[in-house]
Backbone:
């Protein structure tokens, strides 16, 4: 079962997300900057902010007269003119070339838990971090992203995040601020440096010596920013394999989950790239 499926089962009443893949007709019913949302209590419709509330509060959209789908035109009116939508998403061309000659999207995410120190799962298609600091033990689920096959002549590496305005699974609950730190594995590859299995126990020493490279707040990305790239990363040394530790930085409970996409067709025929990417100069 994918991490996103598990997360939805546990927190569907708290999480709002733009409609997931594949692209469906409901994308055509909302007027920008609104997006389609589905809440755990059954509310669904168009809204420019998150309409989903906690389990004891009914979900609702504060937009005046705009929650819910666009009404079907009557015989006396015509639908508003809309510009043609691109056949594929190209927003990532803002900072990466088509051939990815200066970008690397090939991340494997090792998800680790401080409340289950032997837990060891990894994914190349989804990213999921969570914390619950209201609990006295400060439960945490972190991620370590390992990017491989960086060119030998790459320099001035930095970390970017990109999500298209539609077509991927994306969700944030409460805090979405992430601290990011590069990990020094010496001359070893990450998997070898942690003894062949990445879990909380085996990565503890590496995490202590992580070098902070920035903080990026992904809160409300899906319904306020749309198609855009973000970076708050300092330049760091490039090497053939780069490992980055991601952990939620805010003290309150929070979570971030999204699709990592490295090629067209991975999730649908619209999204070509999405998620974390290392950008560098040659």
Residues:
């Amino acid at each position: 079962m994918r991490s996103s499926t598990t997360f939805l089962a546990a927190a569907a009443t708290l999480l709002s997300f733009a409609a997931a893949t594949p692209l469906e007709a409901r994308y055509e019913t909302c007027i920008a900057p609104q997006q389609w949302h589905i809440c755990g209590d059954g509310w669904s419709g168009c809204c420019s902010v998150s309409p989903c509330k906690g389990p004891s509060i009914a979900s609702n959209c504060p937009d005046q007269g705009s929650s819910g789908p666009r009404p079907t035109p009557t015989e006396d009116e015509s639908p508003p003119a809309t510009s043609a939508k691109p056949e594929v998403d190209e927003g990532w061309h803002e900072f990466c070339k088509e051939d990815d000659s200066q970008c690397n999207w090939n991340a494997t995410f090792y998800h680790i838990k401080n409340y289950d120190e032997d837990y060891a799962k990894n994914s190349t298609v989804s990213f999921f971090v969570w914390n619950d600091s209201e609990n006295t033990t400060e439960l945490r689920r972190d991620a370590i992203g390992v990017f491989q096959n960086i060119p030998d002549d790459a320099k001035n590496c930095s970390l970017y995040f990109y999500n298209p305005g539609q077509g991927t699974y994306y969700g944030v609950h409460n805090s979405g601020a992430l601290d990011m730190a590069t990990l020094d594995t010496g001359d070893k590859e990450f998997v070898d440096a942690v003894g062949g299995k990445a879990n909380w126990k085996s990565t503890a020493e590496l995490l202590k010596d992580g070098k902070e490279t920035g903080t990026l707040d992904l809160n409300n990305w899906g319904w306020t920013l749309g198609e855009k790239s973000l970076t708050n990363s300092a330049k760091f040394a490039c090497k053939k394999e780069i490992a980055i530790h991601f952990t939620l930085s805010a003290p309150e409970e929070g979570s971030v989950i999204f699709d990592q996409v490295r090629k067209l067709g991975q999730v649908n025929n619209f999204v070509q790239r999405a998620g974390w990417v290392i950008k560098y100069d040659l």
Remarks:
- Residues 1-28, 66-77 have pLDDT under 50 and may be disordered.
- Helices lie at 3-11, 190-193, 200-208, 221-224.
- The longest helix spans residues 3-11.
